[in-house]
Amino acid sequence: MTGAGERDTGDTRDTRVAVDAALLPSVFSGAPVAMIALDRDGAVTAMTPSVERLLGYGEAELLGRPLHDRVRHQHADGHAVAAEECAILAALRAARPAAGEDDVFLREDGSALVVTWAFAPTVLAHTLTGGVLTFSDARAHGAEVSRQRARLADLEAANVRLALLADVSRALGDSDDVVTGLRTLARLLVPVLADWVTVDVLAEDGSALERVALTHRDPALDAAGAARLGPLPPLRPGMTSGLAQVLHGAPLHHHRVVPAVAVDALAAERLDLVRDLGAVEGITAPLRARGRTLGAITLVRTDTARPYRQEDLDFTADLAARAGALLDTTRVLGRQVHRAEQMQRALLPELAPRIGPLELAGLYRPASDLAQVGGDWYDAFALPDGSTGFVIGDVAGHDLHAATRMGAIRHKLRALAGDRIGPASEVVTRLDRVVQRFAPDDVATLIYARLTTTPGDPHLHWTCAGHPPPLLLTPGAPARLLDDVVDLPVGVADLARADADLPLAPGATLVLYSDGLVEHPGESLTTGLARLLRVGADLGGTPLPGLGPELLARMRPTGLDDIAVLAVRLDGPAPATAGGPVS
């Protein structure tokens, strides 16, 4: 076995050349750098096509010849490198790797090629057989490195924008109201995409303009910006400033120059803002949805070293479109909820303040979920025999169907109660049959009561169809829940119903309510009823119009369900209030 420093035989050398000639081009022909295989004497045994591209030498001119003799190697100052000074040959002789930067190879035409190179020796069976030299155009390599760095910077910026877009989408989707969402949007953009941001929103009829958000990266300027929120000069025809043009329907506007003179009232306000907050460049994008411009968002940078690029403009346009969709959806939903609430309130009766000896007060509070309408209702009416009927009810569901069915059931109950005077249970039984026949999928809970006012002997007659029991407040007596009778809801089964009867003392107050007042998630109805009995015990002396609101304030309902309250007070001496609020 020969050592690493010993010469190989002629056969070994011939074999090495043959292997290099066969394998090197096939393995490295697609490599972006040039590669030359050398034998242990420094002669070329194989080369990749990139060598000819970089140096101009073909295989016929290099193969079998000493590389140092053929490819002249010189210092940066232009002096030739002697063979004994050549770092490549030194590494070959020592069988060690080596590398260099900014060295010079002379091309076939005599021109200089600045290269970055690396050399690796080839040792087979502890015998040095040669080595492989790789090199590339240093200037091209530097340019490629710069391009790669630029690409990485672009990718990083794109990742930042994607993360920001995700945060913005989540913030807009999770906001309880549109103003909160737009203010969160502005805060997310600073300082990632802008040094300060404003969001201006047009009224639905386009007659007024309001700034709803202003955020600055400087905490002091950000705090001072709160004073600039609120009404702006109205948008008028003929205004030509960048903001006005966008609000009039123009696409995104890229402000590269801060104007010295204001062309309209909006421009004057904006110029005043720029003087206080600073600006070198800005983007104003429309908040637009369904072909209508609803407002504008403006992003401003104050650093000339951070110019906006096209991808920033495209990204801002996307953000503005999302914010515009949020604003439009919120307004549409608000109009729908307003109409639904108006319709539901229209289905409730215009409650008279008095019917005979009874004082009446009703309250309706919709659920906090603006998408819901419900089937809660109350009613009170005089009957042909001089008695008074009143009812509290709740049709199952929280949608338009529940609200419309509530109106139908309310009117049907009125008709049945007045058509034939009889026990409360009989009226509800007849109603149950009608509902099961004509609306078999509907279910409703209710309490129907009838108060007879025979002189000196007023009596309450009632039946309960699966509804929470009324609260009775009697002067000089403990508060109680009228839970004497409870039957199945209307629309469930055709079963016999029971009546209850109770004399009422003068000044007594009866409070009927829907379950939204007493129910809390994770809490039993019994607990809610006990709380109602406790907090309502001293409300018998409260003026009747304020009894419902006071009860809501004390009960603190969740708002997840509609609430209806009907308070009925029999004439008599006003009882003294038992004390302050009970918590």
TrEMBL record:
Alphabetically ordered keywords of this record: Hydrolase
Domain of life: Bacteria
Domain PAS: 20-65
Coiled-coil residue spans: none
GO BP annotation list: regulation of DNA-templated transcription
SUPFAM superfamilies registered for this protein in UniProt: GAF domain-like (SSF55781), PP2C-like (SSF81606), PYP-like sensor domain (PAS domain) (SSF55785)
Cross-referenced InterPro entries: Bact_Sigma-Reg, GAF, GAF-like_dom_sf, PAS, PAS-like_dom_sf, PAS_fold, PPM-type-like_dom_sf, PPM-type_phosphatase-like_dom
CDD domains according to UniProt: PAS
Gene3D superfamilies named among the record's database cross-references: 3.30.450.40, PAS domain (3.30.450.20), PPM-type phosphatase domain (3.60.40.10)
Claim: Zinc is one of the keywords in the record: no
A molecular function (GO) term: phosphatase activity
Name the record gives this protein: PAS domain S-box-containing protein
Protein's organism: Kineococcus radiotolerans
Upper lineage: Bacteria, Bacillati, Actinomycetota, Actinomycetes, Kineosporiales
